[in-house]
Amino acid sequence: MLVFPGKYRAPNPQVPLALLYLASALWQEGFGVRILDMRIDDYHHFKLGNPVFAGISCMSGGQIKYALEFARYMRKQNSKIPLVWGGVHPTLLPKQTVQNDMVDVVVRGEGDLTIKDLAKALTQDQPLDEIAGITFKAKDTIKNNPDGKLVNLDEIPLALPYDLLQMGQYPSFRAGQFHIQTSRGCPHRCCFCYNTNFNHNRWRAKSAKRVLDEIQYIKTKYPHITCIDPIDDNVFVDEYRIQQICQGLIERKFGVQWRANCRFDYLANYNQTFLELLAKSGCVELDFGGESGSERIQQRIGKDVTVEEMVQAVTNLHRYAPSIEPCVSWISGLPGETNEDLEQTFDLMDKLQEINPKTQHYGIFVYTPFPSPVMELLPEGFLAPQTLEEWSDINVFHFDPPWHTRAQIRKLHTISAVTRLAFYPKARIDKRNLGFKLTYKLVNRAAKYRWKHRNFSFPLELRLTDTTDRCY
User: Is the pLDDT of residue 464 over 90?
Assistant: First the structure.
């Protein structure tokens, strides 16, 4: 049994693609698999049965709260079933994670191969000492086995077991949007990102043909799909691969649009021919991490992108691929950030929209200290969470960075609320229900007025209708 933790009846759940990859790997070994998506299924009415193990995948923050909630329930119902945790947070802090009473084994990193070996060993009641890629309890000690091997991405079956999920319960799927994964990892050194420690700066990809065959399979199985949305951390590392994918999309006439993450420094150096090919193949949106308009902050966090490259990137899109919308996310609240740094970010956001009116901003988000190298830059007085329960209390949208003054913290949260409600991308708004659209229309006017006048006093009218938790 594989479990995706979350709040029951969450308004906008995404398909838990990672669990489908694990389920596919287990199917290849002849194991039956069930998936419990806590956002869709009430686990109190879910038939637990007697599985080989319950595998729980989670990220840092609030997701851990729901993971622990289910683990305690599972333990109470059948204490003999091993609780196996995986995903981003357990991988980054495996020893701390496995110390919790609700955790028996941690699968570190990519679990496709490890999960098969673990299932076999547990089924046959064999010791876990030889299974690569796990951290586990052994009597009174914690054992940390060597890292596991990486799967050949082209060898993953096209036919993922989508039927294990209630696909019709996912709003994006109903709207014709489908998530795929064309690569894993990222070669860059952004020190606020999980990738540095999770994938060790490695990047691996499916071949262009494999990606195209996968899209063809999806279009055949689900003809209503009109938009492909890769969940990759960095789609564009290999420019030639993207060129092949674009040419294949045109030649095979899938009739789908697509969007993906990209880096500003990549786009700044793409030529007219490549950008025109992106647009012709159906690319309608590229998502960027702008992070900050301050070169000092950019260097501090290892982003390695300059303001000039950001400007050049949106200029290139405006000139050569005007149908593609650039959508940008920003960060505030890092240690050492000043009001001058923030003003540079504000000015750059305005400048990008002036150069390319299609530029959209997701908002300026207050930095939240999840496990990553940037935590080494935090002041000595900041004590990182020491247990799963403490990590579950950190909320990505409401963290108060203690290295700033109370007044500055209030200002940062106000900036975050104003920018999310002033700039939330229109393409995302169009897919929401009528109630959301009407509410957003009202608060959007107030937020835009505040942004224009740089008025970041306490925004009562925006706080009352802050749609963050419903948008993301």
Answer: no
Give the dihedral sign, CA 181/70/43/393: negative
Residue 422's alpha-carbon distances to 216, 363, 467, in angstroms, are 38, 8, 12
Give the pLDDT mean for 60-89.
Answer: 97
C-alpha atoms less than 13 angstroms from C-alpha of 32 in its C-beta half-sphere: 4
Averaged pLDDT, 392-413: 91
Token reading at 317: 């899109």
Residue 253, C-beta contacts closer than 8 angstroms, at least 6 positions apart? none
- Contact status, residue 410 vs residue 432, Cβ threshold 8 Å: no
Strand, helix or coil at 128? Answer: coil
Q: Are 180 and 230 in contact (CB under 8 A)?
A: yes
**Residue whose C-alpha is closest to residue 95's, from 367, 383, 371:** 371
Q: Confidence class of residue 56 from pLDDT cuts 50, 70 and 90?
A: very high
pLDDT value, residue 425: 75
Contact 4, 162 (CB under 8 A): no
Evaluate whether 396 touches 61 at the Cβ level (below 8 Å). Answer: yes
134-138 vs 141-144, strand pairing mode: antiparallel
Across-strand partners of 259? 285
3-state class (DSSP) for residue 59: coil
